[in-house]
Amino acid sequence: AGYCELSGPQTRAANTADYSNITPGDYGFKVLTSSNPQELTKKLSAEIANGRLAMMALMGMLFQDGLTGSAWGDWALYTGSPLR
User: Fold this and answer.
1) Which DSSP state fits 70?
2) Which 3 state secondary structure label does DSSP give 75?
3) What's the rounded Cα separation, in Å, for the pair 43 and 52?
4) Least crowded by CB within 10 Å, which of 5, 18, 39, 79?
């Protein structure tokens, strides 16, 4: 897909020379910034906790999908549920 995009018409969006002096991921602003080191630590810890929570939620969906065949909670397909 990348070859097709770069070998096609040289528009501004497909011209890589426009982006040669930009660091990847540098959008000109930072989301987690603070002049107070304690507040920065608190923000970073909250971000890590939210990421871990999201990973656990995904693991729960995959586990449920393995049990029932549906990740969206169709418990009628699982007759041996301990929740019944």
Assistant:
1) -
2) helix
3) 14
4) 79
Largest pairwise CA distance in the chain? 62
Which one, of 56, 50, 55, lies nearest residue 31 by Cα?
50
Q: Which residues contact 67 (CB under 8 A, 6 or more apart)?
A: 78
With beta carbons less than 8 A apart as the criterion, state whether 47 and 41 touch: no
At a CB cut-off of 8 Å and minimum separation 6, what does 74 contact?
A: 68
Residues in the chain, total: 84
Written as one letter, the residue type at 22 is I
pTM over 0.70: no
Tell me the pLDDT tens digit for each residue of 60-74.
888 888 877 766 766
User: What are the pLDDT digits (tens) for 21-52?
Assistant: 777 767 677 777 888 889 989 999 999 999 99
